[in-house]
Specification:
The structure holds two protein chains of two kinds. Helices cover 56% and strands 0% of the residues of chain A. By secondary structure, chain A is mainly alpha-helical. Chain B is mostly helical. The chains are: A mainly alpha, B mainly alpha. At the A-B interface, helix 3 and helix 4 of A face helix 3 and helix 4 of B.
Chain lengths: 136, 134
């Protein structure tokens, strides 16, 4: 992936993670389609959960990839991995966690990294880029 | 649909679509025992018709559409954009076939008014396959 594409992907992934971490009360600014879809997934009952996972996964995939460039085989693999990440992020033992999904205990770069890995992107979002190294 | 994205011949596609249609219609010839395609299609269709939950209904229609596409087209060649377009068309078709005909007073889904051949014809049209049905 070209450097400019990596930068664009980093920004998008961070925004997606930010939107997923947002809550209606605290971060009205992050009210985006992603945030809305994430909340619908978290609050879905067992019967609606599968469709909500597909909706959000496909939304994220096409935020990052061009659907004309992606084959269905790749698309399916990525969608499956994203579904697994959503399971991890929403998990829970809500009764032990005060009703909050696991994502509440993660910071934005970590959430973004989970999504990036599921998308198969070779991007490091956890470590801040050190651009100030100097020769001594 | 370009031949390059087909994973089987047109003749085999026609046979498969007839089998899928029979399994959806649940007519006597759709005895699903020992036939994976018929079993899976019949199960997804029946659960979708019977589910009281709208999201679950939608999920099952989407799953059935994806399964039908996977049986005919080559996923290693088909672009995701085309796949989404075909899936949408199939989901709309399933939704129409599941609409209960209240005016007739019989409360049966629309699919009951179609022959297996007609359903297969509609499936191939949604998939943009140049198959002759006459």
């Amino acid at each position: 992936m070209a450097t400019e594409h990596i930068q664009a992907a980093k920004v998008k992934l961070s925004r997606i993670a930010e939107a997923m971490k947002s809550t209606e009360e605290a971060h009205a600014d992050y009210e985006t389609k992603t945030a809305g879809m994430w909340r619908e997934l978290v609050s879905a009952g067992p019967e609606g959960r599968a469709q909500r996972k597909i909706d959000l996964a496909e939304h994220i995939i096409f935020e990052v990839f061009d659907p004309k460039e992606l084959t269905v085989a790749e698309f399916m693999r990525i969608r499956k991995r994203l579904g697994e990440v959503f399971e991890i992020l929403t998990v829970s033992a809500p009764h032990l966690r005060g009703g909050q999904p696991a994502i509440e205990d993660m910071d934005i770069p970590n959430v973004a990294q989970c999504i990036s890995d599921a998308l198969g992107l070779d991007i490091n979002l956890k470590e801040p880029e050190n651009t100030n190294l100097q020769k001594t | 649909m370009k031949m390059a994205t087909m994973q089987i011949s047109m003749e085999t596609a026609k046979e498969k679509l007839l089998k899928i249609s029979a399994a959806m219609k649940n007519s006597p010839e759709s005895d699903t025992y020992g036939d994976t395609i018929k079993m899976r299609v019949n199960l997804l269709w029946r659960d979708s018709v019977n589910s009281p939950n709208l999201l679950a209904k939608e999920y099952l229609r989407v799953s059935l559409a994806e399964y039908v596409i996977s049986q005919i087209l080559d996923w290693d060649r088909l672009p995701a954009s085309k796949f989404l377009n075909l899936r949408d068309k199939l989901v709309i078709l399933f939704s129409r076939l599941q609409t209960v005909n209240l005016r007739g007073g019989n409360n049966k889904p629309t699919i009951d008014q179609f022959e297996v051949n007609d359903i297969a014809h509609n499936l191939s049209a949604a998939l943009e396959l140049p198959i002759g049905w006459k």
